[in-house]
Write a structure and sequence with these properties.
five-stranded antiparallel sheet; 20% strand; alpha+beta; three-stranded antiparallel sheet; 10 helices; 293 residues
């Protein structure tokens, strides 16, 4: 559906969507006169475009006494996908694969035929309190669309840096607005795995990612648990996902968060797979004080 709508967008449609996207920082609802001035469309043409985009639910009008409009998540999806396809990165977007608390994931193909995913952030599905707790970098932004764009940029940059040092994170290909294009991983969430052939080895590989992130990239995941670790079909290779809430190592709170991340992993592996590892030893490994766990 998204692919079809993008293909039907006119240059005037794109102008209006871009204006509304650009004005997110300044207006809750962009006044019609601002849209007209920025888009350089005639009043008659503008009203036709606004009516069409409203019917598509790509934009929404303010209240009865409000002549302004704002872009919706669908409108942002269309802009992101248009940019990704016209830059030659994405050739095709397929069906919806999954809906999470903060994102929607679609299958896709790159221009070279490689299977991929497009993750569209949807910050705002969880409570504001959880956003503050796990997405502290967003609390000074009041608009959910802006928050989603920031989250996507941070995820892309974190994964791009990490992929230089570990293969246990998804490879990323590109990013636009609130959308991240990444490799498709055939796997299942760790919390769904009742048994593992080598649980101690899997834990070591996960901790190696935490170590590389900390020592080489200088970041801490910030919300690491069995819910954002994928495991390959043979149950031997982990992939750590969902990185936008990372903290830098020079953040005063980083060690507390690092300790929480590592402790959650250790507790889960002990409870589920009977793997025993001390928190002290694991933290020493992650910080580079010892070479083995």
């Amino acid at each position: 559906m998204l692919q079809e709508i993008v293909g039907e967008l006119s240059p005037a449609d794109l102008k209006v969507l871009r204006v509304l996207d650009l004005m997110l920082n300044r207006y809750s609802y962009v006044p019609l006169e601002i849209i007209e001035k920025r888009s350089r469309l005639s009043p008659k043409q503008l009203m036709r475009v606004v009516a069409r985009l409203t019917e598509l639910k790509a934009i929404v009008k303010g209240g009865a006494n409000n002549r302004g409009y704002r872009i919706t998540y669908l409108g942002l999806d269309l802009l992101a996908l248009y940019s990704l396809t016209h830059k030659g990165l994405v050739a095709y977007i397929g069906p919806l694969l999954g809906v999470g608390k903060e994102s929607e994931v679609y299958s896709a193909k790159l221009s070279d035929g490689v299977d991929a995913l497009i993750k569209f952030y949807r910050i705002g599905r969880i409570s504001f309190q959880k956003v503050v707790r796990f997405r502290g970098y967003l609390v000074d932004k009041t608009d959910w669309l802006i928050r989603s764009k920031i989250a996507a940029e941070r995820e892309f940059k974190a994964l791009q840096m990490l992929h230089h040092y570990t293969s246990y994170v998804p490879k990323v290909y590109g990013w636009n607005r609130h959308a991240v294009v990444m490799a498709r991983i055939e796997g299942i969430e760790l919390y769904k795995c009742r048994e593992l052939p080598e649980p101690d080895m899997l834990l070591k590989r996960i901790l190696s990612v935490v170590r590389e992130a900390y020592l080489k990239v200088g970041i801490v995941h910030g919300d690491l648990s069995e819910y954002n670790i994928l495991v390959s079909r043979d149950l031997r290779t982990p992939y750590i996902i969902d990185w936008p809430q990372y903290l830098y190592r020079d953040d005063p709170a980083h060690f507390k968060i690092l300790e929480r991340d590592v402790n959650q992993l250790i507790k889960f592996f002990k409870r589920r797979y009977k793997v025993v590892l001390s928190l002290e030893r694991a933290l020493k490994y992650v910080k580079g004080e010892v070479d083995e766990v």
